[in-house]
Amino acid sequence: MYRISMIGVVTLVCGMVMPATADDAAAEKVTFQDHVLPIFRARCGSCHNANDKKGNLVLDDYAALRAGGGSGEVVEPGDLDASYLWSLVTHESEPAMPPGQPKLPEAELATIQKWILGGLLKDAASKADLPKKSTISRIEVSTERPPGPPPLPAQYLGEPLTISPSANTVTALAVSPWAPLVAVSGYQQIALYDTRDLRLWGVLPFPEGQPHVLKFSRNGALLMAGGGRGGESGRVVVFDVMTGERRIEVGSEYDAVLAADLSPDQTMIALGGPKKMLRVYSTATGELLHEMKKHTDWITAVEFSPDGVLLASGDRSNGLVVWEAFTGREYLILNGHSGAISDISWRPDSNVLASASADTTVKLWEMNDGGQIKSWGAHGGGVSAVEYVRDGRIATTGVDRVTKLWNGEGGGIRDFGGMPDIGLEVAFDAETERMIAGDWSGSVTVWNATDGAALGSLSSNPPSLAAQIDALRTALTAVESEINQSQEQAAALTKQSDDALTARKQAAAAAEQQAVDAAKLIEPAAARKTALEQAVQQSTGRLQEAEELLAAALKLYEKARLDQMSAAQAAAESQSGFDAAQQELAQAEQSAAQLREAAQNALATASLTAEEQQALSAAQSAIQTSQERFTRLQQALAELEAIQQRNSASAAAN
């Protein structure tokens, strides 16, 4: 959680706040008048007094001591290594003091040490004069991903300082270059959110007033905020992203800071605002390095090039200037816009500057001679913000309430609509491919850059942690209720399905029993059918035999007829032969009649009776009906079992 310790913090010139290097020394109030002067008078006063200024050094007068001697200043507040006098009294340098004598006693040396580290206090009413040392280190300029994990807050940063009944206009918005982290301006505070799940990381206090500019350092470890109170004061503050602690403050403006940036190597901060003056401060000492008076109207945009060589600034009267960052000399004047410059952004290779204007256009400028290489109408009514993505794409938003993503040539890729009011700020998170924009009403919308789908919103006026917990508990209760209802519905459906399945299984079992019973009826009928088929086969054989006998009888009959004809012809010759033939014919006819009768009897015997035929047909029909019903029941059982499996899967998912 963010906190400011009042112990060991002092205010320096140019508004820079630094921690003391020796809290213990400052706390003990070791002063020249009460503690150090007696030592100097006793040990050094004979040679270094107002009358005898050996080496032109006076040690028994505070002002004279601070002025130093023939070799310059001899003490530096808070810095033993830079204090020449300290090296002399400890015998680390020549000539050792006091000359020809042992070192001072350890207790006296400890007193002098505490006095130097405590800021060279003159008396108990004095304020410490500690050295101006930067608490942020200079880094190598690079556009590559820094080694190690991305810088994210190590814990919840802190509660909101103010909670207003309505949202605050989004005056500043920034995304970390290497971490899923977005900073949103609010009144006297800055809210940090995780772009992955939109949860709040906490709030950084900005009691200076309204933040008008937010910028992450090139390595993402620091967050710079500039702002203030209109017509009263302005300042730039640099926060540590992981701890939320203030690292440095620069500037003491008489109006709000509207534009600012931290140099890529973290050695300079440039700022501007309604006073029309572009100022560059050293982060090491807080001193003013450059003042550039080129602008004729409010400075609205300031940004260092990614390589740290150039510094661009724009104003409310379409002025756009590029400066040499380390000298403050004018490099290029870029003329072309007909409206106020609202924002500027450098391409990652530092060769192209993008500028957004109220004249509705975005323009691209090359840095060899300041030529305009591209210009297009981006937003009706004016462009409010522009930002280069690290892969060269460009994000913008504007008065038309639309946020847009362009390729490096100004070709449209996708529009993101749905903002309630005029778009003011835009940021693109390359880590999660999220487009983020804030508007006049205080709404901050987050979209998926891949398909343009709205993912949620962020608040410039976040609730307290207790309110967030209550909201989460309410949401959890609602979700728990939904889960319970779903489980009850699933249980009811499961019971209904189980009951239906049980009924169907019972019906299937009954059908199976009926099939068994039908099978028992089929067995005798099948046996009877088999016996009848065997009887038919036997009758068919007998009929064939009868037909063979009939054929033989017919042959005998034919022979008898021929014999009769022969007998008739030979009647004259032998009457007795004729009578014999006629008798044989009669016998043959009688035999044939008998054979016919036997064959007809055999054929009649081979046929089924009507009752038997009807019983057989009924048995076959019953068998077919039972088989069809058994098949239908099997299909119904399979369908119910499939439904039960789906219900079980759904209940498990819920």
Portion in helices: 25-40%
- Tally the structural domains: 3
Using the coordinates shown, work out and report the CATH topology of the largest domain: Methylamine Dehydrogenase, Chain H
Helix/strand/pairing category: alpha+beta
Strand order of the largest sheet: 3-4-5-6
Structure description:
The protein is an alpha+beta fold. It has 3 domains: 21-117, no CATH class; 253-464, YVTN repeat-like/Quinoprotein amine dehydrogenase (Methylamine Dehydrogenase, Chain H); 469-653, Helix Hairpins (Orthogonal Bundle), CATH 1.10.287. Helices cover 34% and strands 26% of the residues. It has 8 helices and 30 strands. The protein has helices spanning 23-28, 32-43, 62-67, 84-89, 106-117, 465-569, 575-606, 610-653, and strands at 9-11, 17-19, 173-175, 181-186, 189-194, 200-205, 210-216, 222-229, 233-240, 246-253, 259-262, 268-272, 278-282, 288-292, 299-304, 310-315, 320-324, 330-333, 341-346, 352-357, 361-366, 372-377, 383-388, 394-398, 403-406, 412-416, 423-429, 434-439, 443-448, 454-459. The protein has a 4-stranded antiparallel beta sheet with strand order 3-4-5-6, with no helix packed on it. A 4-stranded antiparallel beta sheet has the order 7-8-9-10, with no helix packed on it.
